[in-house]
């Protein structure tokens, strides 16, 4: 998997955390470097950790499902992407996302909640093959850190108009990556 594809994957995965970071920025009167760093570190750290865990879980079972692993990767990425699209177009808002609480307990809960999909993506990466997982998780963590730090500031400056668009974009990217993996394994594209 090339660096461009990994970069798109990182952007797609970071969109939930980016949307929550925008909400966190909305909740504070002044979003400073401290709030930006807190969101960036928590979300970036968990977005990097979860695919690493998923990758090693997937690698343990890779031999058993090698004949249909591309379908599993396609299915997982597709389901995550569709779920992100549904969330983007739903009227519901996460109650904790609007809170101005930046405590470790709150941030840990939000970081885990927004990175569960990254665990499934890690499993997909193990099945996709040709992935340097250390580069992948470093890129995912860095992109998420930067987007979430920026998201706090964006939310503080511009409000919530970007939240749903960010989630929808992330869902579309993940669906397209799942299709790409499937088509590569089926030999439709190189």
Task: Summarize this structure as a short list of keywords or feature phrases.
6 helices, elongated, 78% helix, mainly alpha, 190 residues, single chain
Description:
The chain is mostly helical. Helices cover 78% and strands 0% of the residues. It contains six helices and no strands. The longest helix is centred in the N-terminal third of the chain and has 29 residues, at 33-61. The mean pLDDT is 82.
Quick summary:
The protein is mostly helical and 190 residues long. The chain has helices at residues 3-27, 33-61, 69-89, 104-128, 133-158, 163-185. 48% of the residues are buried.
Give me the secondary-structure topology.
Blueprint: H1 3-27, H2 33-61, H3 69-89, H4 104-128, H5 133-158, H6 163-185
Helix pairs in contact: 1-2, 1-4, 1-5, 1-6, 2-4, 2-5, 3-4, 3-6
Note the main sheet. none
- Secondary structure tally, helices: 6
Shape: elongated
**Beta-strand segment tally:** 0
Topology order in helix (H) and strand (E) letters? HHHHHH
Radius of gyration: 16 Å
Strand content: under 5%
Instruction: Round the mean pLDDT to the nearest integer and report it.
Output: 82
Distance between the termini: 11 Å
Estimated helix fraction: over 70%
């Amino acid at each position: 998997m090339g660096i461009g594809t990994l970069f798109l994957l990182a952007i797609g995965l970071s969109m939930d955390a980016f949307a929550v970071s925008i909400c966190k920025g909305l909740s504070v009167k002044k979003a400073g470097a401290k709030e930006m760093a807190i969101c960036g570190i928590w979300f970036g750290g968990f977005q990097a950790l979860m695919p690493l865990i998923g990758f090693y879980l997937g690698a343990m079972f890779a031999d058993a499902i090698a004949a249909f692993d591309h379908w599993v990767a396609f299915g997982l990425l597709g389901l995550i992407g569709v779920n992100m699209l549904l969330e983007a177009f739903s009227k519901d808002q996460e109650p904790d996302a609007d809170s101005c609480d930046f405590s470790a307990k709150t941030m840990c809960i939000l970081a885990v909640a927004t990175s569960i999909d990254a665990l499934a993506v890690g499993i997909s990466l193990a099945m996709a093959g040709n992935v340097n997982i250390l580069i992948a998780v470093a890129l995912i963590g860095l992109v998420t850190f930067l987007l979430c730090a920026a998201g706090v500031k964006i939310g503080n400056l511009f409000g919530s108009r970007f939240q749903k668009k960010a989630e929808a974009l992330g869902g579309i990217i993940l669906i397209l990556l799942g299709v790409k993996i499937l088509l590569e394994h089926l030999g439709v594209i190189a």
